[in-house]
Task: structure prediction
Amino acid sequence: MAGPGSYWIGAEEKKQVMDVMESGYLFRYGDMEDANFQHKVYTLEKEFAAYCGVDYALATSSGTSSLFVSLLAMGIQPGDEIIVPAYTFVATYSAVIYAGAIPVLAEIDESLCIDPRDIEARITPKTKAIIPVHMLGNPCAMESILDIADRHGLAVLEDACQAAGGSYQGKKLGSIGRMGAFSLNVFKTITAGDGGMIATRDKDLYERAFAIHDQGHTPHRAGVQVGSRQILGLNFRVNELLGALALAQLRKIDRIVGTLREKKTRLKELISDSPGFRFRTLNDPDGECGTLCTVIFDSSEKAAQVSRSLGTTTVDHSGWHVYANMEHVNKYLKENNRPHGLGAYPRTDDILSRAVNISVGVVDAGLGSGFGININSSDEEIAIAAETFRNACLG
Ligand SMILES: Cc1ncc(COP(=O)(O)O)c(C=O)c1O
Result:
């Protein structure tokens, strides 16, 4: 199965997509004077920027594209070092590597997000940026991260791919750093099957990102083009069908996140008296997305026993998001004389070996959340999942 947005695809998405099908315009650019042209991508960008409370948003082909385009827009150069967490999806690393820079991994803490104390220890004269990843919809400790970035003159690019709709101290995740990258793949809060967004307050960064995502063009290909382009771009554009689907989902995002939070609160209440674990730290309990409920056991043995009886795995064995399980990334780190392989980030290894992800809205074995509930689960289904979890803890 997949993420919460995908469970709620319905009449609104169909209507938006049919608008495009009937318009005769599939490309994101069209004749603004023609009433048939639906300009869904343009509208999506405007509404997403407003939702995030920033001036500019850009739709891209994926969260990976959003990270890559943002790094290039920020002027990251070959050899620059970028600090990233040791627990994240592979794309956080690959975007940095393909931008020519070096990912420098830092430990996570019990929020399962990057540990600000370890960021400071990894800074060298080559460090140019930090990528805090709001893992599993949980905000990073942005106050400390921004403070470190300010003191060392570093840029902050938020990887909010798993966290659209979340916030930190009242600000939307992805709107706090210089740039924010989002994913619209099928496992995310809102989805268009695939796709991504970039958010920024900075006009120059937006214009650079726009050009990089579309062959060097100025935003919306407005103004003088040929002969005056300064930036060599690529193609990470989206088409009107994706824009239409994403627009319908964006208009549901607060209802989606609100529902997840309610269901998660219910689940937590029902399992909180089970023995042997604590809930992961939430850096802003009011702002997390509620997509997952992560529990951290006192020992890895207990976590393994509970996850086995739930038919799932501890997070360290969940595969997709754990540095130690990424053979390609470890090969790269080894070739670049960087710490690599299991044991290189021992605090991360320890926390992940004691952690179990219970799904609330993201049902994804690749994230270790094969067990749990989903956004449509009834109170009765939540009670059954809670009972199953409690029995596993007692076993
Ligand atoms: C933390 C994180 N960063 C980046 C990405 C990449 O997003 P996409 O799959 O849209 O390229 C993902 C997607 O799973 C993610 O979870």
